[in-house]
Amino acid sequence: MLRRLLFASFAAIFLLLLLPTTCKAKLNHHRCHSSCGNIPDISYPFRLKDDRPRCGDRKYELACENNRTILHLYSGRYYVEEINYTRETIRVVDTGLKKDDCSSLPLHSLTYANFSYRDPYRLSYETLDVNFIDCEAPINSSLYIDMAPCSRNSSPNSSLSSMQAYSYVVVKDMALSDLEDSCSVGLVVGFSTTGQKIDNSLPDIHNRLLYGTDLTWGNCVLFFFCTPYDGKEHLMEKLYGIAACLGSWVILLTVLAVAAKIFFGVPCVLIFLIYKWKRRSLSMYHAIEEFIQTHNNLKPIRYSYSNIKKMTKGFTERLGEGGYGSVYKGKLKSGHLVAVKMLVNSKANGQDFINEVATIGRIHHFNVVQLIGFCVEGSKRALVYDFMPNGSLDKYIFPEKEEYISLSFEKMYQISLGVAHGIEYLHRGCDMQILHFDIKPHNILLDKNFTPKVSDFGLAKSYPADHSIVSLTGARGTRGYMAPELFYKNIGGVSYKADVYSFGMLLMEMAGRRRNLNVFAEHSSQIYFPSWAYDQFNEGKGIEIGDATEEEQKLAKKMVLVALWCIQFKPSERPSMHKVIEMLEGKVDQLQMPPKPFLTPQEV
């Protein structure tokens, strides 16, 4: 600690000795006057490239090209329209903009993100963002101003010629949630608001971009010394020097205060964080241990961490990874292959670990993955499952590698039936109903015979069998497969029908061999597959599936119709999993046409 104090004192003395030199250097700057085009008075701190060496500050160097004053920033070149020495602002315009041509666009983004604390310039606070957005489909929103009028009037050489089919402008400081689906932001340019109301028209936006963007400069800390230069050079130079010196003193005191915080604060923060982490880990460990001691009838074997390392050969062969951690291939002493899931990012008090052990640790079913054992040792937590050599179902529905073979419709149908039996067992086959809450292709594993196994019970909840409605503190699951009642409380309570909805979305993807929501679909009507499939059947048409046989066409139609029943918006209109199995095993001619599925209450 003594060494730190001596070092801080030495640094302070060094800065104090340096201050007079710094202030003197600032006083010795020459106030030269230059001009270029529409900027008649270019003076300190600015300078032109051809000015004398001691004129102005090289950080604020400007160029004069074709009688136009040019400012070079990291983001690009800009015309200088005005320098206001009173407000310490310089107004710039992108060189890509042209007067009376709304098809001309800025060449570069200009936002707060373009500047760092080292830059001599800052974007003015009186600035509003103009977002240039490209979309793959037309957008119906009052925020999105269509640029089509400009693109139609543009010449072949216009900068709009390279734009996509649907281009828009949004005048707003946008968040990611404001961006419509299938849209991407091309450029963001800030323009000065000048206190005037914006009428959200293309000509008005273009004129405001042509007016320019205000950048501020300088680091005057004591505002009462920030006096504008008015020609009284001797007096003003003295005042400027005093302000610079006092500003440097303020900077010195700030640096010393920050240094003191770093020397004394950082160790305290680190000690506090380590204490919190250890307390959380111990709390999680005690919660898991208490659960294991209370439920001493669990079937899985408890392994030590050294056993886990041996069976995975030191975690050498990784099978996959996710937000929970990583999965490794292992082998028991008997030669039985296993998959070992190492949990890293656990939920509060290890609840995901407890959920897995509490659910599949008590049950055994042909279509539910078997938990062989687990490990709890300090912060180390592992789950040991049967090894599934054919991986997860998503690789066969949406194949990205050639190594995954294309499954026949008969095989897909058999897999869907097996998944339905597994979920139905969870709902009705035990003394407690187990709700999975995360049915999706990634969580359906396939053994060597492509028998499906429902897996990943980290979000599962157990309830008494007579509870038709269950309580949840928040939505859980994966977007795209989550039931609407988890979002909209007014359409019905949460029950086993939430798993039915997720199964329906899974079944729809299995039948269509595609994702339900695909913004890159060939036709806009096919973006949301369930709606398109319903319209096809409602109009007496089928779903064309390449060179599928008549029997395969019937299987696909049956799977889609059952899926449409499962994804009904209201839980009361969905069948139970027992009824789903009956429909899948029955004939397609006996299935009635369900109501059209909706996404939101507004559609209903």
Write out key terms for the chains shown.
604 residues, alpha+beta, seven-stranded mixed beta sheet, six-stranded mixed beta sheet, extended
The CATH fourth-level homologous superfamily of the largest domain:
Transferase(Phosphotransferase) domain 1
Distance, first to last CA: 69 Å
Low-confidence stretches: 16-28, 153-163, 220-238
Number of strands: 23
CATH domain class of the largest domain: Mainly Alpha
Main sheet: strand order: 3-4-5-6-7-13-8
- Report the biggest beta sheet as strand number plus sense, adding barrel if it closes: 7 strands, mixed
If you average the pLDDT, what whole number results? 80
- The count of helical stretches stands at 12
- Which structural class do you get from the secondary structure elements? alpha+beta
Determine the strand fraction and express it as a percent band: 15-25%
Task: Compute the CA-based radius of gyration.
Answer: 34 Å
The coarse overall form would be: extended
Specify the CATH architecture of the largest domain: Orthogonal Bundle
**Whole-number count of domains:** 4
* CATH topology name of the largest domain: Transferase(Phosphotransferase), domain 1
Helix content range of the residues, please? 25-40%
